[in-house]
Amino acid sequence: MSLWLHHLIGLFYPRLCLACTRQHPPQHSLLCPSCRLQLPRTDHWQHQENAFTERFWARTPLYSGAAMFHFVKGGRVQHLLHQLKYGGKPEIGVQLGEWFGRDLRQSLFFQSVEAIVPVPLHPKKEHARGYNQSDVFAKGLSMSMGVPWYKHGLKRQQFTESQTRKSRLERFGNVEEVFVVGEAAALQSRHILLVDDVVTTGATLEACAHTLLHTLPDVRISMVTIAMAG
Ligand SMILES: [Zn+2]
To answer: 21 C-alpha vs ligand 1 centroid, how far in Å?
Structure first.
């Protein structure tokens, strides 16, 4: 598309901030300046023990953990996450990742991270959505932290139909079996940063961490998410 046509379309359909949907963000940004300042950031990355790591106490040995934002129901973070998951806007994840990665790079607790691994989406879901929202966030983190990211570091275990039926009851409450390590050689002995979009109970991240720790006992695990609910 030619530049003048692009500008012309911009006049009639101006881009709106993806968090508040009211203000116009500057060029190359998806968020307006006031959202950048006012989104409910946490300070988790400045403390090795915080509300995020507390959620995993006595469940998963974590080196460090942090959410970027507090999740407020009906708030701008929820809107942003909705756009990321269902609005076909993977660039939100990349931009948030780049932003958060700059903070993490300054943090003593994340400086030794050597590999970034997103929580995998079920392949059918990823195909329907076109991307994995945790993976695009991981990509942005990788760009600003200067740490490699492994899209297939973890994979969803594909069960055959009979396995699914037979083991549904056994697997209930034990999502652990759903994941397998995809790139063991690249990840062994590393400090791995597990990445997800939202942490609520922490069950999914916990299952991913346990899969990594069972398969590669010499790894160290940290976690980050875009938001933390509750
Ligand atoms: Zn805004």
So the answer is: 6
Q: Residues of CATH 3.40.50.2020 domain(s) within the chain?
A: 40-228
Measured in Å, residue 31 CA sits from the centre of ligand 1 at 5
Kindly state the tokens that stand for 26: 């500057």
pTM listed for this prediction: 0.87
SS3 of 215-227: the string is: HCCCCEEEEEEEE
Q: What kind of architecture, by CATH, is found in domain 40-228?
A: 3-Layer(aba) Sandwich (3.40)
DSSP tally for the chain: helices H, then strands E: 10, 6
Gap from CA of 96 to ligand 1 centroid (Å): 14
Q: Mind listing the pLDDT tens digit for each residue in 131-146?
A: 999 999 999 999 999 9
